[in-house]
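[job 0417] fold request received: DUF5615 domain-containing protein
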Amino acid sequence: MSQIRLYLDEDTVEKSLIKAFCNANLDVVTVADVSRQSYPDDQQLIWATEQGRAIYSYNRRDFCCLHNEFLAIERNHAGIILLQQQRYSVGQQLQGLLKLVATHSAEDMVNQLVFLSAYIDKSY
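[job 0417] inference complete; emitting C-alpha cells
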C-alpha cells in the first residue's frame, strides 16, 4: 500500500500550511509548483488523478459536485479531501492529515470524498 500523495489547489496554498506539511514529510505538490494556477476544478482533479494525488481543497461545493459527476460517469479520481476554510488552524489541518495518512493508503482514497474535519481533534 502506498502513502497518500497530496495536490493542493489554489484555495490551500498558504505558505505556513505548505511548510508544515513538508516538514511533516507529507508528499505535497501545489498548483504553483506545477504552473496550473487558474485551471478549472475539473481539470485540476483530472491532473491530480493522472499523477496519483488526492486533491486537498477548501472548495467544498465544487468538489462535492465533481465527485458525484465523476462517479455518475464511472470515472475514477485519486481522492478528494475537503475542509471548511478558515475554521481550522494550520496545526489542526496538519494533525488531521497526519491521522488520515496514517490510517488510509492511496489505494483506499480512490473515488473517496473525505471531510478532513472528521480527523481533526476539536479540542486541539
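[job 0417] notes: The beta strands are 5-8, 27-30, 54-57, 80-82, 113-115. The chain has a mean pLDDT of 94.
[job 0417] exit 0
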